[in-house]
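Input sequence (333 aa), recorded before submission:
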Amino acid sequence: KDGQEVAIALDSATGKTLWEYAYDAPFWKEQDMSNGPGPHATPLVTGSYVFTTGVTGKLHCLNKQTGKLVWSRDLFKEFNGTVRPNGYSCSPLAYKNTVIVMVGGPGSALMAFNQKDGAVAWRKHDFKNSTSSPILTNVDGQEQIVAFMFGEIVGVEPNSGALLWSHPHPTEYGLNTSTPVWGEGNLLFVSSAYGGGSRVLKLTRGGDKTTVEQVWAHGLMRVHFGNCVRVGDLVFGSSGDFGPAPFAAVNVKTGKVPWGDRSVGRASFIYADGRFIVLDEDGRLSLATPTPEGLTGHCKTELLQGVAWTAPTLAGTKLYVRNRKTILALELG
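Predicted structure, token format:
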């Protein structure tokens, strides 16, 4: 609001504001924020800290109880990160005593900061940044950070940042946005719109080397900016960029797309108790069960007015949903 980004903590029972932390975040002349002013990234809560990133590349560490600033870093001014016209959007990832983010650019593709004081733990590689976020995987006993960069998917060693492997995934404008999905069989699923499509990589660890084998790749599944969820051998997500984006399934082992369901609009969703809790971009909330044959809907309600692009969050049986103006807590029990 008013050229500032605001981190806010709410009482989970009442929605009452517990604290706010605001900081100046004016857009640059290169930025086109017409698709939404942001922020675009999910706060990270770990230990006594909250870590946030904003669209102008400012990383903040706040005290979880009070919201007071512990430290901050400017990823663009300090480290020459890749300037994204639609804003920085990497959600921070905690690893041991560090927090890891994608920054992009010469020598700073990925960076790890000490959680307590913001000191640089490591800073590596020259890949340009995308609009995705890193994930933690385990490849045959070795922990690896996987990052969906501007034109490739890469794996790095989380303690040092050393490059373990990379595989090309070219996309127009480097808009690799959806978070990679790691699952059984050492299969890594990545998907993007803008000509990127989907691919599955099989990662195998032998000695000190990680081998990357492409299992399949095609353009039948194109995830624009929403999330994907794997259940069994199927990965689910909204497939499409501009125009219709039916909710679809793709087999991670074969690449076959058994079905697409146009009754669900472009959506973000989570998996709980064998069912999907789905929030589409028009604010409709639905409950459905995924199957190899299709999506079995149970109920649907018109919940929010206006664009809703944030994935719902479930804590116990309490569901939190939001759009650009409203946040709601719902009891699902």
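Checked by second reader. The radius of gyration is 19 Å.
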